[in-house]
Amino acid sequence: MKVSQPLLTVNDLTVEYWARRGKVRAVEGVSFSVDKSETLGVVGESGCGKSTLGLSLMQLVPYPGRIVKGEILLNGRDVLRFSANEMRNLRGKDISYVFQDPMTSLNPVKKIGAHFVELIRAHEPKVSEKEAVARARKLFKDVGIQSERIGDYPHQLSGGMRQRVMIALAIALNPSLVIADEPTTALDVIVQAKILDLLNALRDAYGMALVLITHDLSIVLERSDRIIVMYAGHMVEYARSADIFKNPQHPYTQGLLKAIPNVELDEQTLNAIAGSPPDLLNLPKGCRFWPRCYCAKIRCGEEEPPLINTAPDHYVRCGKYKEGE
Ligand SMILES: Nc1ncnc2c1ncn2[C@@H]1O[C@H](COP(=O)(O)OP(=O)(O)O)[C@@H](O)[C@H]1O
Ligand SMILES: [Mg+2]
Q1: Which of 10, 182, 183, 267 has the smallest CB count inside 10 Å?
Q2: Residue 175 preceded by cis peptide, ω within 30
């Protein structure tokens, strides 16, 4: 039994891009929730709708995208009904976003410290510049950067440090949810691990929830409480991380697990899932995964399977399963 309402509840979210080539449903019928101080991992191959999902939560889906259906409840309030002003207030203060490439969010001609002063004072106009700088120095300490670096320009920092700056900016207003979208993809493996551990440590220290988006299941397995596996705009599996690891039900999830080096699963040694995801403009009939599925039956190519609840907190979209199985 849940003691309190989740921090975030998403119901039947559907997002479309109305591009020249046609209309694409990048996210379709996605539902999940995030509790306070919880980490939710979102995994799937490039193009499956992860960023669109993350950006939707802040209503930042780029043109020509639009949210066509669904509900996004933050502490019980539907964000999709917020005015532009309420939305501006929400961004950074309630929910913030860490992008893959920090250079897209940092202004190259502005010193790092100025980014903090601007952000803090935009939301809290009464805070003096001096106070804002002091807060920025404290944030630098929290993310493991020497506070003198506050006077640097973005290009003077290494990629890893820039990403730490982005994380400091993301937590500057003490939001209840941080969305980190492939925050370490551009970094080398060691820096990557440090940044991910930093995110989790900050989650604990600040008591915020984290949505960690990645194409790499191994990254979220150990670091998330729950995981959403996306495939071609659909959520194909949603469960506690331990259950994704011990009892993956969707053949796609099973394939992703097998592709992780050193994860021992049965006697299978074949690593990659053959083939590639479908073009969203030209989806196969039936299950979107069947052309790549090792256990596809004829009916898989005819009917699209619904998302069903197979066990407590375990959902899967695959024709093999029946409700409660
Ligand atoms: N700006 C855009 N214009 C048109 N279609 C887009 C745009 N951005 C994304 N899409 C479509 O949405 C799908 C999902 O994209 P995205 O959410 O970026 O996936 P991911 O983050 O998983 O790589 C893409 O495969 C593409 O078809
Ligand atoms: Mg993306």
Answers
A1: 267
A2: no
The ligand minimizing its distance to the Cα of 42 is 1
| Amino acid residing at 187 | L
Nearest residue (CA) to ligand 1, atom 18: 51
The model's pLDDT over 63-96, given as tens digits with 9 standing for 90+, comes to 999 999 999 999 999 999 999 999 999 999 999 9
Alpha helices in 110-250 (DSSP H): 112-123, 129-142, 159-171, 189-206, 217-221, 241-246
Sheet strands side by side (includes 22-34): 22-34, 8-19, 65-74, 77-78
Kindly tell me if the per-residue pLDDT of 152 is higher than 90.
Answer: yes
Residues 25 and 51 in one domain: yes
- Tokens 């006077």 correspond to 151
| Contacts (Cβ under 8 Å, ≥6 apart) of 151 | 111, 112, 113
Can you state the angle between helices 112-123 and 129-142, rounded to 10 degrees? 120
Q: List the domain range (segments joined by +) for residue 197.
A: 8-94+176-277
User: Of 150, 174, 198, which marks where a domain is finished?
Assistant: 174
How high does pLDDT run on average in the chain? Answer: 93
SS3 state at 265: coil
Distance from the alpha carbon of residue 51 to the mean position of ligand 2, in angstroms: 4
Q: Largest Cα–Cα distance in the chain?
A: 68
Same domain, yes or no: 129 and 264: no
32 and 168, same structural domain? Answer: no
Q: First-to-last CA distance in the chain?
A: 21
The answer to whether the CB of 269 falls within 8 A of the CB of 281 is no
Residue of 24, 67, 281, 283 with the most ligand 1 atoms within 8 Å of its CB, for mutation: 24
DSSP 3-state of 122: helix
Q: Are residues 235 and 223 in the same domain?
A: yes
Cβ of 216: how many Cβ atoms within 10 Å?
16
Confidence of residue 318 (pLDDT cuts 50, 70, 90): very high
Residue with tokens 């973005």: 154
